[in-house]
């Protein structure tokens, strides 16, 4: 192998194989979520970073008649075509969402959203069962109760999900400095 070539670890995110899934960041849910400002800021960073890096984005809304639409600060960053309503807690319980994930042909899903111990956890477990590699941005997921969040992250990790952070995920997806993408993403995390 020539000296300049190397093999990246299969556990690292790859922008050519990753999709961002934003789970239920909704108007009536987020105000009661623990650490909501930080979580929402990190979700915005992930959505913006996905745009810079060309990652497909899918955002779900759990029973929007009851929980409202995606919060405006995140919704303004999304194309309406990437929004999907659902009634099942797991995103994979909705055929249209599973179809989107299969059509996107990305083997890895980076997950953020709420609530960590309900819709996020059930989705992550079902993604793993469906053969996807899953990364969860721990600083971009939460629950009303911090203990539920902590337990959910532990459980998802034990099931095989990689627990990461927003910044770590974005820089893994970038792979290198000195590019326009690097400059754009670096501004997001400052």
In brief:
44% of the residues lie in helices and 19% in strands.
Explain this structure.
The protein is α/β, with parallel strands linked by helices. It is built from eight helices and six strands. It has helices at 36-53, 64-67, 72-75, 95-104, 116-129, 146-159, 166-174, 180-189; strands at 18-23, 57-62, 83-86, 108-114, 133-142, 162-164. It has a six-stranded parallel β-sheet with strand order 3-2-1-4-5-6, sandwiched between helices. Strand 1 (18-23), helix 1 and strand 2 form a beta-alpha-beta unit. Helix 1 (36-53) runs parallel beside helix 7 and helix 7 (166-174) packs antiparallel against helix 8. The longest helix is centred in the first third of the chain and has 18 residues, at 36-53. It starts with 17 loop residues before the first strand and ends with a helix.
Kindly list the characteristics that best describe this protein.
six-stranded parallel sheet, 190 residues, 6 strands, single chain, globular, 8 helices, alpha/beta, 19% strand
